What does this fold into?
Amino acid sequence: MDPHPAGDTTAEPQGPAPTADAPAAAAHQFRDRFESLLPSIQREWPEVARHTLEATRGSFDTVVEVIARQTGRTSEGVKEQLLELVQVTGDQAHHLADSLRPLEEQLEQLLDDLNASLRPRIEKPVRERPLMALGIAAGVGVLLGVLLASGRRSA
It folds into this structure.
């Protein structure tokens, strides 16, 4: 039996279809990551000078053109390699971010604990003797100012 009645032209989704904007998105991603990709690009194509690559200002098509011209490779081959490089570095960045997330959560917890335990110990003396606390803060500020000023004069 036909799952779509006569006259029904809706199709079931087949997964994400490639969009016409995929190359534009890849080029935008390339431009955003260009500075961090430069060392990898230079390892892959050492015959292309860094200043030549920097002069492209991260324009994907211009980088492809420069590499193809200076290495004798086809533009399509260079494009594929660059897109793969963008994909690999993106995957590595996501993996790094995922591995840092637990550390970030642990640090936030430690800071919350420190705030909860240290804050009352600092606030109590300041509330009991505000003028003394203000004098100490001013003295520390003056001392730091003198130290920084003398460091500038000797440099």
Notes: The longest helix spans residues 75-128. Confidence is low (pLDDT under 50) at residues 1-20. Helices lie at 22-44, 50-54, 60-71, 75-128, 130-154.
